[in-house]
């Protein structure tokens, strides 16, 4: 069982103060230890509804998410540079401390996608791919060998590091394309993608993320699939939360809440033929990943389907 709500908030606030006092968030023994403690605090099951906590806690949470995002970017750049020093960088991905989590998340997202998407997508866009595009690498290598991945990031240096990782791989270097572009300036190209992934840290606050989602709703093709990463319970101290009502112009198919070390929830939705400003009432599906690696979908407390997650 997780700690009480009061203890959780108190402990998170203490960690926030420590992180705020640091001169740098670049990987170091101290930085790594503090973030490890934060993750260990937020991952265990806890009934806390973080988004309903008082305003002063919400302000702290918003700042903490931005700190986590900055630190995550610095960590990915750090390890991307290390991996890029090898002749075959992808042979050494296990040097990245969270690589196993990406393997599990990739497997989870592939199985979720397979439940709602017939066939194999021809073109996928990943928005916010960063300097270490592990999701694209894992999906392209392990699950979607015939799919082309278009990776979008606003940071030219991040794309430069990412390109260096796959340049030595004949297959992936042909199927992974990198675009240095703000996704808000991409319009017609979005219609070409069967599936669009939106990284958890694209849009670090609610308003920014909704703007991105509305832009995707305006320009994606009807019937195309959108996959987003969200957070649930205490994990919402680490990442922004996507509410189904934020997805105007999309039909929400399912929301998956893992309870293991995979931190992010996964939201899958389908672009409707309705304009982005038209409000819809999606069927909200909460899905919990149990220790037997099965996903149970619950609608208002009643089981509506059971999906098997393959190892």
UniProtKB/TrEMBL annotation:
Q: Which GO terms describe its biological process?
A: nicotianamine biosynthetic process
One GO molecular-function entry = nicotianamine synthase activity
Q: What is its EC number?
A: 2.5.1.43
Please give the catalytic activity noted in the UniProt record: 3 S-adenosyl-L-methionine = nicotianamine + 3 S-methyl-5'-thioadenosine + 3 H(+)
Which InterPro entries does this entry report, sorted A to Z?
A: Nicotian_synth, SAM-dependent_MTases_sf
Alphabetized, the UniProt keywords read:
S-adenosyl-L-methionine, Transferase
Keyword set includes Nucleotidyltransferase: no
Stated family: Belongs to the nicotianamine synthase (NAS)-like family.
Q: What does this protein do?
A: Synthesizes nicotianamine, a polyamine which serves as a sensor for the physiological iron status within the plant, and/or might be involved in the transport of iron.
Q: What is this protein called?
A: Nicotianamine synthase
Organism name: Sedum alfredii
């Amino acid at each position: 069982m997780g700690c009480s709500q009061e203890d959780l908030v108190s402990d998170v606030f203490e960690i926030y103060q420590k992180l705020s006092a640091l001169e740098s968030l670049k990987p170091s023994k101290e930085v790594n230890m503090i973030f490890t403690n934060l993750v260990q605090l937020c991952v265990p099951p806890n009934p806390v509804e973080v988004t309903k906590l008082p305003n002063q806690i919400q302000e702290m949470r918003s700042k903490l998410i931005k700190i986590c995002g900055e630190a995550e970017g610095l960590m990915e750049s750090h390890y991307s540079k290390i991996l890029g020093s090898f002749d075959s960088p992808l042979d050494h991905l296990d040097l990245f401390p969270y690589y196993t989590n990406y393997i599990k998340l990739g497997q989870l997202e592939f199985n979720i996608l397979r439940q709602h998407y017939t066939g194999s997508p021809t073109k996928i866009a990943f928005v916010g791919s960063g300097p270490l595009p592990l999701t694209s690498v894992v999906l392209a290598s392990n699950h979607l060998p015939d799919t082309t991945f278009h990776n979008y990031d606003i940071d030219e240096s991040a794309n430069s590091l990412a390109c260096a990782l796959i340049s030595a791989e004949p297959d992936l270097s042909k199927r992974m394309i990198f675009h240095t572009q703000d996704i808000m300036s991409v319009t017609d190209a979005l219609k070409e993608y069967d599936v669009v992934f939106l990284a958890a840290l694209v849009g670090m606050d609610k308003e920014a993320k909704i703007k991105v989602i509305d832009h995707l709703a305006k320009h994606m093709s009807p019937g195309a699939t959108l996959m987003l990463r969200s957070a649930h319970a205490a994990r919402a101290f680490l990442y922004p939360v996507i509410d189904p009502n934020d997805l105007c112009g999309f039909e929400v198919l399912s929301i998956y809440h893992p309870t293991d070390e995979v931190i992010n929830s996964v939201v899958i939705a389908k672009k409707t033929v309705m304009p982005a400003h038209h409000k819809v009432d999606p069927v909200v599906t909460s899905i919990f990943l149990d220790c037997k690696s099965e996903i149970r979908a619950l609608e208002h407390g009643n089981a509506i389907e059971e999906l098997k997650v393959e190892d």
